[in-house]
Amino acid sequence: MDKILILDFGSQTTQLIGRRIRDLGVYTEIIPGDSVINDETPGTARADQVRGIILSGSPESVYDRGAAPDRRVYSCGLPLLGICYGLQRMNFDQGGRVEPLPEREYGRIGVTVGKKPAPHNAAARFLEALDSRFTAWMSHGDTLTALAPGLGEYGTSDTGYPAVVIHDEKPWFGLQFHPEVTHCERGAEILSAFVFGVCGCSAGWTMERYVEEVRASLGARIGKNPVLLLVSGGVDSTVAGALLLNALESDQVHLMYMDTGLMRRDETETVRANLERLGAKRLHIIRCGDEFLSALKGVTEPEAKRRIIGDLFITIQEREVARLGLPDTYFLAQGTLYTDLIESGQGVGKKAHLIKSHHNVGSPLVDLKRKAGRIIEPLDRLYKDEVRRLGRILGVDEEVVRRHPFPGPGLAVRIPGEVTREKCDILREADAIFIEELKRRPAPRADGDAPAAAGDGFVKNGGAGGRSLYDDIWQAFAVLLPVRSVGVAGDVRKYGWVLALRAITSADGMTADVYPFPARDLLEISTRITNSVKDIGRVTYDISSKPPATIEWE
Prior knowledge:
By secondary structure, this protein is α/β, with parallel strands linked by helices. The chain is built from 16 helices and 18 strands. It has helices at residues 14-23, 85-93, 121-127, 187-198, 207-222, 235-247, 267-277, 289-295, 302-324, 338-343, 364-371, 384-393, 398-401, 421-440, 469-472, 519-532; strands spanning 3-8, 27-32, 50-55, 80-83, 97-113, 133-146, 151-157, 162-167, 172-175, 227-231, 253-259, 282-287, 331-333, 375-376, 475-489, 492-505, 513-514, 536-541. The chain starts with a strand and ends in a 13-residue tail after the last strand.
């Protein structure tokens, strides 16, 4: 099977490059950027069907601490594609100059492709994917100020710096932007041109094949030992459970759900029904809300909340495992996605920066189990939309598959400041109303016309074709702010809590745009919340994109 090798220098979107190429039907393998490149290196031998190499982006600078690839990458004879830092690295290593920009280039920036002829056939095939003018997505603080011998500039950014670079003789290409990000025009076509037009790959990678490979690897590693998976009821852990039940004997798979008191409304009953439908025979429901709320009493710092929750998850899990009598050889499984790992600074390489900690990634107790080799993370190379696709293949109920993401720490990171039972109850009710409204309101029609107004044909699960606002939105939720605002209830002056609504569109969670609600929808949703949840006196809408904000508030 043909594959593309990606050298990871710590970019937040390295895995996204691989995912985009997998969407094209070509397998990708990601290794640390400074890995030794030779015929004996696993996954890099020519006999192992590697057809091309991509040098990823990085938060570092080539003239500072930036990791350098093995020099043999430039003599291996395979096509190379440098993306952002990868291009800077290629240029710097070949004798060019890279320097800091006066102002960082970030976001949507136009690129103009020159009209000079392609230097060789591979370049011609690559340039066919580029319009003479398109909008790219950039994120860098350095630029190429002098090209290395043999490299030529074929595209220029609106700010006047090289954006597309091609070698005069070798199949080496460089982009000073990120084609893997959905905001980049013709990004998929550019990657396709490199993978198929330059590298000559054949499509042979499917999600069904992924299931077969994971099934084989899980069987070989786990054998007949029991596996314990902590499930939350969200897409990730449910699909992870479905994959374990598909790959192993159902009696081996123990599914433990903790009702932490930080869950959504009616979550426990929903989890039980979904997992039993998937064939779970060993489902353990632990009601431990008092323990979590007690541990969080007086804690306001976001990372402290996450650490406390992560440690308590493992503490309770170990206590409950002891009660179950599982042997020491049991494995702990988690529904960790690649976005969890990369944002926690635990990507493939050593250069990823910490964005936030995750309860199932950054906890010291989880780290100890990881070092002991007793953790199974069957989804740790997938993005959210891939997990949804996998869930459908495994027969997970569509209501679960299309469910919006929910953070592992639950409502604790949607209540800035101290978390209390009262605040959780208020937020649970308001969030449920928000989601109900999104599911019953039809999405805008394909012709661009606005959806019908409330009362003008609203139906359960949206409008024509059953598509609702909920389906148009990648993630939506409510946040209870640590602020009381004055209001009027009847003729009485009253201080009520302020609620923030968040709704974003995204393909993978690495970048996100604000969902452009029609004003009428927001007005009607806000009115229902303030009328139904007596402790909420004011509703706001969060209009921050990612970046600079993250999706969750904490």
